[in-house]
Design brief:
By secondary structure, the protein is an alpha+beta fold. It has helices spanning 44-56, 87-90; strands at residues 19-26, 31-39, 65-66, 70-73, 84-85. It has one domain (19-90). Strands 1, 2, 3, 4 and 5 form a 5-stranded antiparallel beta sheet that branches. The radius of gyration is 14 Å and the shape is globular.
Length: 94
Amino acid sequence: MAMPPYTIHCQACGAKASLKVASHWSDGETRELKTYSIVCDSCLDAALKMAKARHLHCQVLPGESIEPPGVWELGAGKSSGALVRRPDLENASQ
Ligand SMILES: [Zn+2]
C-alpha cells in the first residue's frame, strides 16, 4: 500500500506530524505495530505519556502480548515496514 500523497497532521495540534507512538502487539503468531497516536515533535511528550498510561490499562487475551509504547519516525514515501524507530525519544518524558 502506497503512502498517501497528502501531509499527515498531528492529532493534538494539527501541525505537520513527524512521529508515530505505537506498540508492538503479538498473539504468538502475528506481530503488528498498533498505533496510539500520530504527532509532531512538540506534542510527542504528551502523546507518549498518554500511550504509556493506556498501555498500563491495556487488556490482552491469554497468549497475547503488547510491548511498551515506542516512537517511530514517519518517513514520507516509505512503507510501514521501513519505519525508523527512535529509542532516543522514548524516554524524553521520564
Ligand atoms: Zn502537535
